[in-house]
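Lecture notes, unit on protein representations.

Consider one protein chain, 287 amino acids long.
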Amino acid sequence: MSWFNRVRNSLGFTDEKKSTEKDLWIKCSNCQEMLFVAEYEENLSVCPRCEHHGRIGADARLKLLLDEGFDLLPLPQVTEDPLKFKDSKRYTDRLKAARAKNPHDDAFVVGSGEIDGKPAVVGVQDFGFMGGSMGMAVGMAFCAGAERALRRKAAFVVVTAAGGARMQEGILSLMQMPRATVMTRRLKAAGLPYIVVLTDPTTGGVTASYAMLGDVQIAEPGALIGFAGQRVIQDTIREQLPEGFQRAEYLHKHGMVDMVVHRRDLKATLASVLDYMQPPKTGSKAA
């Protein structure tokens, strides 16, 4: 190593350059274009070249959909690691690692506020926390969000993103499917809108329960939505699947999704849907 390189490395120039490049650029996972991080985030984590919708965290999603001043519901307390599960790592270690990388203690976060002045409770599933997997904490948080909507007589909007049930909790994770389904029935009985926004990816037990039970089903462009994986389906039916199978546009074409909405238009679309679905307040001219 030359004298110049030794001096440069000792002053940290190389590390600073690597850090700067990492902070300034991001590669689109769809078109592989290198994008300025600032431009990408300003565009709501949507690629300005190919319109690919990247994944965003729960906090960013709540800020995108709810008006300022919304409240975060506390995450319900559940028994952690009820099965004392261990595969290549202990479940408790996996939870610690996930919490170290995320601002919240589990994969479902609920905000209570308004969407363009219309009362709403919004639950967001964060794929960044263990793939958004549905365990007891997610099920409890979903039910708590529905309860808040019932008390406020407000709409319940759920943004899904999950790989399915959390295997480390076994049957206890699968029990969240009927629990969440019961809460959607309670919302329906109360005449309150239950709206689902399907984002990439929404699969497994989440799709088989509350993700497909909305009064209105909205999906982001290109979102993967399904129960089993394409390879499993293809091997089972022994047929080639059509192009775009399990993507939002395919499901919309075949009647499984009501509309596909760009992220920049999502809040305005939800506000319009709520304006149509929510009953007018008692005493108003509309009433």
